[in-house]
């Protein structure tokens, strides 16, 4: 017996079949249900533990805000000085959690299952950035939110993890229960006449 | 003159598009204007004189200005996209089919019945309503006063305007697209800096659109076009026209409202939130009125507005125009009027001839100038007919239909005021200016009190250079340009005239505040500028005193022998200009009003006929599949739990992983119970308090393994509790080795409750032993259920055998389906919130927020024993020993049984000895329901000294009637806990 998995929007779990939630000439919104992740939480400060934790998850953990690191299929971004999200293939979540928690048996660093916490959206198109800016400041930096950066911020009153993949592509992680609201909000923005 | 205009429209001139006629209506009359007109200019061109009525005396009011400084021209306006209940005519660009109507005066502004109030003007002085209408009761008069207030008409039509929100960061924000702002922006352009230039008009240029100016021998309009082209060539420059900077906040954060219009009206509004490193404030200034008797008649207008009407819109405000001034800009008005073919019989200057630098030029254009003179009064009612001029030895009456006044200038520095800047009075120019600008700001041009264009341009270049060097960027050196224009010259202020009745001199045209009112305020010691404002209502109208404040406080200074600086200005607060609520709200209405939270199995609940309600999350209150109506469905759901098994979606319950070597100790500091002693596999219920000892949250904590805990706060508090943990960890206990990870949405939790719950759980094939001897009440297991990772807690909120099965949220729908479908023979039933809450009420378990309030401590809900046992410290412990917490008069939680009638939550418990209301109350019913298991109406209540009153009969006032009840133990069902321990 095994329960069936279902994504937030009912799209396929197969990454080869990306389901678009919304498409227009200027923006496309997709659910990326193939992305899994774990949450690393450190009980102590110090860069000393980062190396060991990075080794356990297979990707260097960034030590500065805004930066992300990638290594093969892994992707790590810093949420706070003591917490990181590590993206992985959804099937690897269990093994990755087990590996970290075995490495840190005293839970100095704890790995939590997190694949189901965030719903990942991919927003592409020339108007993508403009749509997000309807919901809040993406960055208060002069150079804005540069490609290759990631952060956690508020968009449309909802906490979002933003990753800028390129000029016209964003990966957005939204807490699962609010994902449908966020998509509705984004679609309502996209439907406006620009 | 007649040959020079069509109606009041001049035959030539202005920057309007005379090829594009625009039809509109005003109070039902069909009129025509041109593209580029404002509603104000079009109405004046069509000869509309009386545009409204004043607030108190209902005096006729005409156009006094052409922009947002105008205190008089509030109208209701409808275009193809929306309706504005009240907006100044000068702020509305004319669009095809626009409908405008008056908002003051009944039945019309021309004939207003309420104008009879003028007869009582002698008794309607400042603050009359504070002194009168006290007898017999203010409430008697209040409805009438309320009906007579307000400027605007409401309309139920839904706006079709699109609202956008924009959030941007810039290096430099230039506010104002006149000569100062354009020069600064032009010099900063192409330097690599991100520049945003905003102007409230659809066309850049500011006063250059109407003043007679040339740069290097070419008309100012060409210079403007060239400058704008150069700005547009820089991709780093964003030009926002028709955009009002409405507010300035800390860290140079601004709000802007941009209007995007087409030929049918304002199609969209963009509400910008913009943060800039540097700010150039180039907002210019506005003319000030002059005080004289009957200075409020329609036809009297600010001098700069007259020049704007002629220069920008090609409109004559009158066919015979007198000019009254105390400075040199009045001469510019007279000369411009003459050039437009308007008859100017006289220019009255309060100053001696020697100060008037443009007198010769005015006289050359055919204007007779009189000096050392004042206007003593005016005649006419709905339209100005004549003015009386008093010279040093003569008095003469001048027939005219218009009067242009200029009493000096007021720099528009409100945005700097939003940042806390206190303006300083500059004697020489008789104006308030910004002496100490906020960090990163440069105030230039008219906003800085500059009266000479050459100075303005030099200030702009200096500001740009300062910003460039501050930012370390190369910058094009702007060349000096040769400016040819007439200067605004100098001013000799005259605040209170020597002649004319003060009771006829209007300071605030909208609110009918006169010099005599200020006099009265001074006599009654309302001499502080803030008191003056509120007592007389000076500057409290929709124009926010743009034309009246300076005159008002100067008069007050004169009346109290103080300097104007000593009186000071009132406080400038955002927004500078009215902002529509809809613009601020954006799309936050309907389903998008607040972020809605959906359960991971939302679709299944809908399929089961769940009636969803917003409990912070969209949760099923009851299921249509269980009954035709709420009561029958809820009863069926309760019966299912008591007799076989119910399935309840508790996914919204908080889940916070607390990990690390100090995790147990950390949690113990929050909960009343000692969580440090919790062993792996154990679960403990407790409450947590704020520092004042009042219950903040309750829930269970599970120990999943060494140094690994899972706290389960309530659904509504899950995020607040996580934040509470994190706040204390970071600020008070930074050395504790602990991490807090909120994971609520990651896990779907489905509770199965009832005598058959274990059998149903077994059908999910858990990979751990669930036999009652091994998996006991208040224990937790991690493993696999139905082939997927799961955490199963044996806890009970219903009083029955109950398991909470948590699986990753992606399996929620499948788990719920499986439980309901695989339960054949066990007859599982989906259970909604209402039944769940009634089941816990039967058991006597509290529901946070219902059975607790902002005063309830653990001592009040029967947890005194646990508190007493704790030797070590926890948050709120100290407060529990204070007198307020240990008082014998506290409300304590008890059960209530109705002896007759039906209990309802909120019912008040009458004080002992009282059987009728009104009377003192000794508590209230916190939860109530009819219990199918017990066959009676039961409830919980917070009652004064409740613990010692069990068994007592009390009266409860509920829903209009009084019923008798008995106070009992809160536990109505299975007091021995046999069922949940089964």
Automatic annotation (TrEMBL), chain A:
It comes from the Bacteria. It holds the Pfam family SoxG. Gene3D superfamilies: Heterotetrameric sarcosine oxidase (3.30.70.1520), Probable tRNA modification gtpase trme, domain 1 (3.30.1360.120). SUPFAM superfamilies: Folate-binding domain. This is Heterotetrameric sarcosine oxidase gamma subunit.
Automatic annotation (TrEMBL), chain B:
This is Heterotetrameric sarcosine oxidase alpha subunit. Belongs to the GcvT family. Residues 892-974 form the Aminomethyltransferase C-terminal domain. Residues 602-871 form the GCVT N-terminal domain. Keywords: Oxidoreductase. GO terms for molecular function: oxidoreductase activity. The keyword Nucleotide-binding does not apply. Residues 503-585 form the SoxA A3 domain. InterPro entries: 2Fe-2S-bd_N, FAD/NAD-bd_sf, FAD/NAD-binding_dom, GcvT/YgfZ/DmdA, GcvT/YgfZ_C, GcvT_C, GCVT_N, SoxA_A3. Residues 171-422 form the FAD/NAD(P)-binding domain.
């Amino acid at each position: 017996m095994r329960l069936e998995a279902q994504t937030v929007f009912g799209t396929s779990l197969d990454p080869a079949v990306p389901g678009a939630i919304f498409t227009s000439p200027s923006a496309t919104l997709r659910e990326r249900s193939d992305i899994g992740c774990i949450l690393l939480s450190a009980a102590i400060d110090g860069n000393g533990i980062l190396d060991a934790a990075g080794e356990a998850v297979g990707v260097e953990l960034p030590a500065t805000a805004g930066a992300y690191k990638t290594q093969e299929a892994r992707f790590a971004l810093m949420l706070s000085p003591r917490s990181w999200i590590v993206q992985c293939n959804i099937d690897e979540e269990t093994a990755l959690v087990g590996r970290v928690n075995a490495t840190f048996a005293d839970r100095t660093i704890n790995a939590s299952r997190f694949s189901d916490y965030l719903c990942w959206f991919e927003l592409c198109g020339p108007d993508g950035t403009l749509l997000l800016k309807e919901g809040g400041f993406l960055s208060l930096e002069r150079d804005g939110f540069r490609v290759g950066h990631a952060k956690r911020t508020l968009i449309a009153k909802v906490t979002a993890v933003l990753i800028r993949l390129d000029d016209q592509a964003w990966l957005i992680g939204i807490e699962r229960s609010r994902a449908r609201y966020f998509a509705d909000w984004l679609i309502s923005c996209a439907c406006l006449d620009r | 003159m007649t040959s020079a205009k069509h109606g009041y429209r001049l035959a030539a001139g202005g920057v309007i598009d005379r090829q594009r006629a625009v039809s509109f209506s005003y109070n039902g009359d069909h009129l025509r204007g041109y593209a580029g007109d404002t509603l104000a200019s079009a109405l004046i061109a069509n000869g509309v004189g009386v545009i409204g009525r004043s607030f108190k005396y209902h005096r006729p009011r005409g156009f006094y200005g052409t922009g947002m400084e105008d205190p008089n021209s509030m109208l209701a306006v409808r275009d193809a996209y929306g309706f504005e209940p009240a907006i100044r005519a000068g702020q509305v660009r004319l669009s095809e089919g626009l409908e405008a109507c008056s908002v003051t005066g009944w039945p019309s502004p021309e004939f207003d019945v309420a104008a009879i109030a003028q007869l009582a003007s002698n008794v309607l002085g400042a603050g009359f309503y504070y002194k009168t209408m006290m007898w017999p009761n203010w409430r008697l008069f209040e409805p009438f006063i309320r009906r007579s207030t307000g400027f605007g008409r409401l309309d139920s039509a839904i706006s079709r305007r699109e609202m956008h929100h924009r959030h941007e960061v810039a290096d430099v924000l230039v506010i104002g697209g006149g000569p100062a702002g354009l020069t600064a922006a032009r010099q900063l352009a192409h330097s690599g800096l991100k520049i945003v230039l905003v102007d409230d008009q659809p066309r850049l240029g500011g006063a250059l659109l109407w003043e007679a100016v040339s740069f290097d021998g070419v008309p100012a309009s060409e210079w403007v076009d060239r400058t704008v082209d150069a700005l547009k060539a820089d991709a780093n420059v964003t030009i926002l026209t028709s955009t009002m900077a409405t507010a300035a906040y800390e860290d140079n954060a601004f709000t802007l409202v941009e209007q995007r219009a087409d030929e049918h009206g304002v199609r969209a509004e963009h509400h910008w939130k913009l943060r800039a490193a540097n700010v150039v404030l180039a907002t210019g200034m506005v003319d000030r009125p002059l005080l004289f008797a009957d200075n409020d008649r329609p036809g009297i207008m600010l001098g700069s507005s007259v020049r704007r009407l002629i220069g920008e819109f090609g409109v004559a405000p009158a066919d015979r125009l007198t000019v009254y001034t105390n400075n040199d800009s009045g001469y510019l008005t007279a000369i411009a009027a003459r050039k437009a073919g308007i008859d100017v019989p006289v220019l009255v200057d309060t100053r001696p001839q020697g100060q008037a630098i443009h007198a010769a030029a005015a006289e050359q254009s055919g204007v007779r100038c009189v000096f050392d003179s004042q206007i003593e009064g005016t005649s006419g009612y709905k339209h100005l007919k004549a003015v009386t001029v008093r010279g040093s030895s003569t008095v003469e009456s001048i027939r005219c239909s218009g009067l242009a006044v200029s009493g000096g200038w007021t720099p528009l520095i409100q945005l700097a005021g939003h940042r806390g800047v206190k303006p300083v009075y500059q004697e020489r120019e008789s104006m308030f200016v910004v002496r100490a600008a906020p960090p990163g700001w440069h105030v230039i041009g008219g906003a800085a009190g500059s009266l000479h264009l050459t100075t303005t341009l030099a200030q702009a270049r200096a500001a740009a250079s300062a910003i460039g060097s501050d930012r370390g960027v190369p910058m094009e050196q702007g060349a000096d340009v040769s400016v040819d224009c007439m200067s605004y010259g100098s001013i000799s202020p005259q605040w209170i005239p020597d002649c004319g009745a003060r009771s006829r001199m209007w300071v605030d045209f909208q609110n009918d505040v006169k010099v005599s009112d200020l006099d009265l305020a001074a006599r009654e010691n309302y001499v502080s500028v803030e008191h003056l404002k509120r007592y007389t209502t000076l500057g409290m109208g929709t124009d926010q005193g743009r034309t009246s404040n300076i005159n008002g406080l100067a008069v007050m200074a004169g009346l109290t022998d103080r300097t104007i600086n000593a009186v000071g200005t009132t406080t400038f607060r955002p927004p500078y200009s009215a902002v529509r609520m809809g613009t601020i709200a954006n799309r936050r209405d309907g389903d998008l009003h607040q972020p809605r939270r959906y359960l991971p199995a939302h679709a299944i609940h809908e399929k089961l006929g769940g009636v969803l309600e917003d409990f912070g999350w969209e949760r099923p209150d009851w299921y249509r599949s269980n009954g035709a109506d709420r009561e029958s469905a809820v009863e069926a759901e309760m019966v299912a739990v008591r007799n076989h098994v119910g399935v309840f979606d508790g996914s919204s319950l908080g889940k916070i992983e607390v990990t690390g070597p100090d995790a147990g100790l950390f949690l113990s500091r929050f909960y009343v119970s000692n969580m440090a002693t919790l062993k792996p596999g154990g679960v403990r219920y407790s409450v947590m308090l704020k520092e004042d000892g009042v219950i903040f949250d309750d829930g269970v904590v599970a120990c999943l393994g060494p140094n690994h805990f899972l706290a389960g706060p309530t659904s509504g508090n899950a995020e607040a509790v996580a934040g509470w943990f994190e706040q204390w960890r970071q600020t008070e206990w930074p050395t504790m080795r602990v991490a807090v990870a909120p994971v609520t949405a990651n896990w779907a939790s489905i509770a199965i409750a009832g005598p058959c719950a274990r059998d149903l759980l077994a059908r999910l094939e858990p990979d751990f032993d669930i036999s009652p001897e091994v998996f006991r009440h208040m224990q937790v297991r991690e493993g696999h259920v139905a082939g997927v990772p799961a955490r199963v807690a044996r806890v009970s909120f219903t009083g029955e055998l109950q398991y909470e099965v948590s699986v990753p949220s992606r399996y929620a729908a499948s788990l719920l389906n499986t439980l309901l479908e695989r339960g054949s023979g066990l007859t599982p039933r989906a259970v909604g919130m209402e039944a769940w809450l009634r089941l816990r009420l039967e058991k006597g378990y509290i529901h946070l927020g219902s059975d607790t309030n902002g005063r309830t401590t653990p001592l009040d809900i029967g947890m005194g024993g646990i508190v007493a046992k704790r030797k070590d410290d926890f948050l709120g412990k100290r407060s529990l020993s204070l007198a307020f917490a240990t008082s014998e008069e506290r409300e304590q939680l008890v059960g209530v049984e109705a002896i007759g009638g039906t209990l309802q939550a909120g019912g008040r418990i009458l004080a002992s000895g009282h059987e009728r209301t009104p009377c003192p109350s000794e508590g209230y019913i916190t939860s109530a329901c009819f219990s199918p298991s017990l066959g009676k109406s039961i409830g919980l209540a917070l009652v004064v000294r409740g613990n010692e009153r069990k068994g007592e009969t009390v009266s409860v006032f509920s829903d209009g009637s009084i019923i008798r009840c008995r106070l009992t133990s809160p536990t109505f069902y299975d007091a021995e806990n046999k069922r949940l321990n089964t």
